Amino acid sequence: MRIVVKVGTSTLAYPTGCLDIRHVEILVKTLSDLKNAGHEIVLVSSGAIGMGIGRLSLKGRPEDMPTKQAAASVGQCELMYTYDKLFGEYNHIVGQILLTGSDFSHEDRKENFENTILRLIELGVIPVVNENDTIATDEISVGDNDTLAAMVACSVDADLLILLSDIDGLYTKDPHKSQDAQLIPLVMEITPEIKELAEGKGSGLGTGGMVTKLHAAEIAMNHGVDMVIANGARPRKLYNIVEGETVGTRFLGRETAI
């Protein structure tokens, strides 16, 4: 299988912005093992701004664009150093790809990106994709890495997209507010009722939330790609997801659903 895995800032870092070493090490070990089993892995990783915040000892997520971009510049270095070091321990090579919305909207640039990432996969490299936050502005940004991951999954004709977040999946109600909230294991179609279930903005360091995840699901499903939302606090659950077991919420790609 060709699998795109997106990890959010909440999975990679503590609220302080410092790296959650235990989670990242388990995540990398699990992805490396899945690759050893013959799966092709693409990692879409948030965390550059969050780690930059921790590295620069900032009090919180910056509001102004220059400071956000400065934090991303510092954090992206730390992020890729970490991935290179940890994946290298399992004899896997990583390659960095930084994108903006313009890379998808311009035909030539989109083709160049797709050629590069597909060649990396052919060469046995694990592409690590992130939005280029050091130069992205509102006019050219994708906006969030859930959407970016879905666009990447479609570009590489992935078999499966997995979004690892700070929540177990899509619930009937906000599980942080309602004790009777129930996890929805399977979604066949993004209906207005499903969209109404999306609330919240995600973690304090990240930019995503359930709204962006449902948007990503729409993109993936329309391309025939299955998508799963699962809790990033338990990276080993990736084994279960890949084996088709019920974990989190699975959104069936249209071709699969038919």
Distance between the termini: 20 Å
Which term fits the overall shape? globular
Low-confidence stretches: 200-208
Rg from C-alpha positions? 17 Å
Mean pLDDT: 87
Structure classification: alpha/beta
| Biggest sheet layout | 8 strands, mixed
List the keywords:
single chain, 258 residues, alpha/beta, 8-stranded mixed sheet, globular
Structural features, described:
The chain is α/β, with parallel strands linked by helices and 258 residues long. The chain is 43% helix and 16% strand. Strands 3-4-2-1-5-7-8-6 form an 8-stranded mixed β-sheet, sandwiched between helices. The chain starts with a strand and ends with a helix.
